[in-house]
Amino acid sequence: MKIAIVEDEGITALFLKETVEDFGHSVIGMFDESNTLLDCLNSDDDIDLVLMDIKINGKLDGLQLAKKLCIEYPSISIVFITSFKDSDTIKDAKDASPLGYLIKPVMESDVEAVLMVVESFNKNHNFEDSNLVNVGKYVYDKTNKTLLLNGEMIQLSQKETICIDILAKNKNSYVSHEQLIINIWDGENNREVSLRELMYRLRKKLPYLNLKNVPKMGYFLSE
Fold first, then answer.
1. Which residues form the domain of 163?
2. In this structure, are residues 47 and 41 in contact, taking their beta carbons and an 8 Å threshold?
3. How many domains does the chain have?
4. Per-residue pLDDT reduced to its tens digit, 22-43
5. Of 48, 152, 159, 220, which one has the fewest beta carbons inside 10 Å?
6. How big is the chain by its Cα radius of gyration, in Å?
7. Sign for the pseudo-dihedral over CA of 116, 88, 175, 131
8. Which CATH number does the domain housing residue 21 bear?
9. Which helix (H) or strand (E) holds 52?
């Protein structure tokens, strides 16, 4: 597997790198903050797994970054490696659907076990290969990030495009309000009203869109 390590503690990062490589995997990069990892993904998103600390540098913390990856790069698995073990943090981490949550200090056997879990998951989980996603009467092109109706492209604003991209890539699955806000407004807080206004505009512009909102759950697109 190709693995990225996001860890701001140098000793821990080096330990993870050496351990991962000892088990036959390759480390494509070591990062101590969110932006450098995102830049790497923008240039080469061929990553199977991110080992993620929660307390990192940058605009997004580890939880926010993981939720962003979960939405924008659903084929990348995430494992948290952190000293946070309180129930609130663990509950919050669930929104990123991690395949593991290891408490520091970690042992080689911990890393080996979680790598086996990720490998097994990747072998048995098939991601949608098609770049085209049917959403109601519309077709979304994931490569070009365009929404089509009867072959004609619909003009969307930048934020509308980001929102549709997120929902289409996670079709038939709930995307929480927090995850949408993190991705659309790049981690800004107190954007709940802006999100509701954005959804209102999308519903008016796209009357055939099967967009649903369930309180405390989130939004999702269906066929």
1. 132-221
2. yes
3. 2
4. 999 999 999 998 888 888 887 6
5. 152
6. 18
7. negative
8. 3.40.50.2300
9. strand 49-52
CA dihedral 18, 19, 24, 26 (to 10 degrees): -50
Q: Identify the helix (H) or strand (E) that includes residue 211.
A: strand 211-214
At 81 the three-state DSSP class reads strand
Indicate left, alpha or beta for 209 from its phi (over 0: left) and psi (-120 to 50: alpha). Answer: beta
Q: Is the dihedral of CA 191, 192, 197, 202 positive or negative?
A: positive
Q: Domain of 137: which CATH number?
A: 1.10.10.10
Q: CA-CA-CA-CA torsion for 176, 74, 87, 118, nearest 10 degrees? A: 160
103, β-bridge pairs: 82
Spatial distance between the Cα atoms of 84 and 77, rounded to a whole number of angstroms: 20
Q: Are 182 and 146 in contact (CB under 8 A)?
A: no
Residues 10 and 120 in one domain: yes
Mark out the alpha helices in the chain (DSSP H runs).
10-22, 34-43, 62-72, 87-93, 108-124, 158-169, 177-184, 192-205
CB 72 within 8 A of CB 60: no
3-state secondary structure of 109: helix
Give backbone dihedrals phi and psi of 55, rounded to 5 degrees, phi first: -95, 100
Mean pLDDT of the chain: 88
pTM of the model: 0.64
Which residues lie closer than 8 Å to 59 by C-beta, 6 or more apart?
Answer: 34, 35, 186, 187
Max Cα–Cα distance, the chain, nearest Å: 56
- For the stretch 45-69, pLDDT in tens is 578 999 999 999 888 999 999 988 8
Structure tokens at 134: 């049917």
